[in-house]
Every structure is written in structure tokens, then in C-alpha cells.
Amino acid sequence: MQSYGPNGDDSYEGDQPLPQDEVSTAQTEQLYSDYEDEVPPLPPRSAPPRPYRPQTYGRSPSGPEVVYDTEPEPPRSPGNTVTFTVAKFNQFLQWLLWVIEVMFALRFFLTFFSTSNSNAFISLLTSITDPLLAPFKTALRVQDTGVEWYILLAMLVYFLVILALIRLLRLFVTEPEL
Fold this sequence. Notes:
single chain; 178 residues; mainly alpha; 0% strand
């Protein structure tokens, strides 16, 4: 049986030693003297900027001294309350859109895959979403086929209406693009 353990000889049969790379002992000035005229000299170093040091009056600060490169900006005053209100209402509409879409998707998949509506969660979800889906039930004249396609239509319509409302309100908050 052949042994694969180390036997003190690190060379493999038939391995030839690799040739050594030729190393030049010439100095770099001699090797690259032809290119000295093309390289411009480095510019002189500028002094580092002096940090802004605020004056302290009386007592020393309790924490470490804060050093700024420039004078700090004054705190911002609160923005226009109408703009703030419209922006917050936009955030509420986005949240409401997600809630409605998730509830409709849950109702669609749970009623599609369940055989009975006796589940308490499905009954609760149905009672919450029925008022929102009522216009779509009557518009499509739904018959009991098992698949409630009107839910998908309602998801699309609510998404488009709320998205259009969000974009309209955003016009009042943002500056005009030129």
C-alpha cells in the first residue's frame, strides 16, 4: 500500500525547481531617467484649515469641546403648518392604501382556499370589507362561482384612486419643477 504522509521530501517526483526571477539591482533613477522631464513637480502643501473655536464664557463645558470647520447652522424653524398637514395626510393615505390592499388580498385568498365561511377570522374580515366591496359586487353581478373576481377589481380601483389622490396632494406640498 502506498503512503501519502510526509516523508521529509517536499518535492514531487518530476518537479523541476522554478527559475528565479531576474532582479535588477539598478537604482530607479537610472531606470526611469528618460521620463523625468515629462512629470511636473508636485505643488507645495497648503496649511491645514484652522478649526472654528467657539468662545466660552465663564464656566467650562461639561463634555468634550466640539470643534467645527465652519460655524454651525441655527436650528430650523418649523415649516408651514399647511404643508406639514398635507404631508402627514399623504402618509396616512399611503398607510390606508396598504391596509385596504392587504385586507382585500387576505379575503380573496382565504375565501378562495377555504371550503366554509364558518371560520371566525374570515367572518370578521368579510364584515369589515363588505362595505368597501359593495359597489363592485353589484357592478359585476356576481354569481356564486367560488372565485370572487370583484375583490381583484376593487383592489385595482382603490389602488388607482388613492394613488391619484396622493399625487394630487403632493402637488400642493412640492415646488414646481422647471
